TrEMBL record, chains A, B:
This is Polyprenyl synthetase family protein. It comes from the Bacteria. The lineage of its organism: Bacteria, Bacillati, Actinomycetota, Actinomycetes, Kitasatosporales. InterPro entries: Isoprenoid_synthase_dom_sf, Polyprenyl_synt, Polyprenyl_synt_CS. Keywords: Magnesium, Metal-binding, Transferase. PROSITE patterns: POLYPRENYL_SYNTHASE_1. Pfam families: polyprenyl_synt (PF00348). One of its GO terms (molecular function) is metal ion binding. Coiled coil: none annotated. Belongs to the FPP/GGPP synthase family. GO terms for biological process: isoprenoid biosynthetic process.
């Protein structure tokens, strides 16, 4: 199967997940108090800042798609896991709202971030409300897996918090003070955890036992780490026209992303050059020199290789959880999509 | 019974609740990842900023005490509601962490607030983790009431968010632009909701039906509003030595607290004087003149009368939920304590 065909299939899957989840997601967000609803609807891209209906680019619905595809792969009825898929999407968006405040990110999905429009307090409070909304979704769910899903999702949120806290701490440290292991652990907590949790919840809703649930969790985590590696590559070499962010955005922000830390840890002259650049302000010329240094220090190749390795590990976990290749197909397509995307 | 005796009984009740809840609360907080645990333990007063053990003044444990007393009042076993009491206390502290960031409050319980010590990102993230920890507590609770409690607590968090958002919005508005009704609704959401929810959860754990649960919720809400009115009086006339805050702290912050809004809405010359003062910076002399204006405009008397009225309403709701005065005794003592405290 060609990449183009796979990509097309993945987009169709994501589109279908978005269509399945959106009515319940919107209905749930509509139950928020008026003052918070506007912030949430702006963040989701459904409204402009003044409350007029909008149709901005929504998120890719990867997490809900993973919940539904995991349930289906293990013989469950994805329709029964809709509330859980919405809960996972709400958790994801709560973390986005807070991360944007914390990182002072000005844009998300090609639009000004919620905190720049409604203020940091509004974005913090709306994020808190989305976490509670996710909990309410699962508490109201009569499915026998809802309690285990809620427990798992809460544990995942704590892991996401740990990852975000580590990310903040890294930014305070000098160029040589973050090890590659710490950086991988941070990415696993910050990105892998929720993708793994989405898969595990889908498995729980299909009535899977502990072993298969754990294998699907591991599949999601590995795919999530691959996803993060690609995201970090895009943060340096992504096309601003497609990412909606300036070129080398992560370098400008002095981010200790995975390719950067790999380059710094390389012991090469290019790594030392990068460390020197990272000690100063990252303006136009410095950004392209830094990107070049990451590449010459092997950071770009390392990240690409790691992403492939993580994908291979994901595929192996998937075959443990879902031995039938036919049943595993959708999950495989989703995992390959997120690690091949260019934006 | 004299006030002193009642106060003594209430303190003993709160002390007992604190002793019941603390071991599980501490054990639960210990499960947080290291990077967040320190922030949480500092916030709870168990550690100093450098991680050394501390025994700073903890919160008054009013909410856990209400959970346990409500369960007992309705014939339940408070020991069965311990996890729920811890969950409520975690939610309360998550909101404190975030509110202090949002309001930029420098002190809490006579110590620098967590965000001033660990930075706003750390306090936001630790708060997020405490919300998740509360959810995990209830998800892991095998008691048949746990699901309904979780649903109720999540709905309550959304109401707390609504109240906090309204509070922020009021600060942006001019002296005459907040009505007393809006202000009462805000206080109900911000303070009444969680006290009501604590009582309702205690009722659920005692196996109470919808009607008694609703009456106990209303009891907690009314008592909570009385509590807020007293708190607002303390925010103007409290003794800095006891509150740990500067004199007239709420006036300095231009807070549209209940006595202030009542004074502004009074249509009196003193109310107009207050509005004029609130348009400028609140320095030393202006603070005492503003306090005086609130009093002359009737804001102080109004708040005291409202607090009494709310307490009367609370007592009425309590007698509906728990007709036996003997069984209702503890809840009554707690409610009267919180509305008579002077700090």
């Amino acid at each position: 199967m060609s990449e183009a065909v796979e990509g097309h299939e993945a987009l169709a899957l994501l589109e279908r997940a978005r269509e399945s989840v959106d009515p319940l997601l919107r209905e749930t967000v509509e139950t928020l108090p008026l003052s918070l609803r506007g912030i949430a609807k702006y963040h989701f891209g459904w409204e402009s800042a003044d409350g007029a209906p909008a149709a901005a680019a929504a998120g890719k619905a990867i997490r809900p798609a993973l919940v539904l595809a995991s349930a289906r792969a293990l013989g469950g009825d994805p329709g029964q896991a809709l509330r859980a898929a919405v809960a996972v999407e709400l958790i994801h968006n709560f973390t986005l709202l807070h991360d944007d405040v914390i990182d002072e990110d000005p844009t998300r999905r090609h639009r000004p971030t919620a905190w720049t429009v409604f203020g940091a307090p509004g974005a913090i409070i709306a994020g808190d409300a989305l976490q509670a909304l996710a909990v309410r979704m699962l508490s109201e769910d009569a499915h026998p897996a809802a309690r285990a899903a809620s427990e798992r999702l809460a544990a995942c949120v704590i892991e996401l918090c740990e990852g975000q806290q580590a990310d903040c701490a890294f930014e305070e440290r000098g160029p040589y003070e973050v090890s590659l292991d710490e950086c991988l652990a941070m990415a696993t907590a910050k990105t892998g955890a929720l993708l793994g949790c989405a898969c595990a919840i889908g498995a729980l809703y299909a009535g899977a036992g502990a072993e298969r649930t754990a294998a699907l969790d591991a599949f999601g985590r590995e795919a999530g780490l691959a996803f993060q590696l690609i995201d970090d590559l895009i943060g340096i070499w992504g096309d601003p026209g497609r990412t909606g962010k300036p070129a080398g955005a992560d370098l400008v922000a002095h981010k200790k992303s995975l390719p950067v830390v790999a380059a710094l840890a390389s012991g090469t002259p290019a790594g030392a050059e990068l460390a020197e650049l990272y000690r100063g302000p990252m303006t136009g010329a410095a950004v392209s020199r830094a990107a070049d240094a990451v590449e010459r220090a092997g950071g770009r190749d390392w990240a690409q290789l790691q992403a492939s390795d993580r994908m291979a590990a994901a595929v192996q976990e998937l075959s443990r959880a879902v031995p039938d290749p036919g049943a595993a197909g959708e999950l495989l397509i989703l995992a390959e999509f997120v690690t091949r995307r260019t934006r």
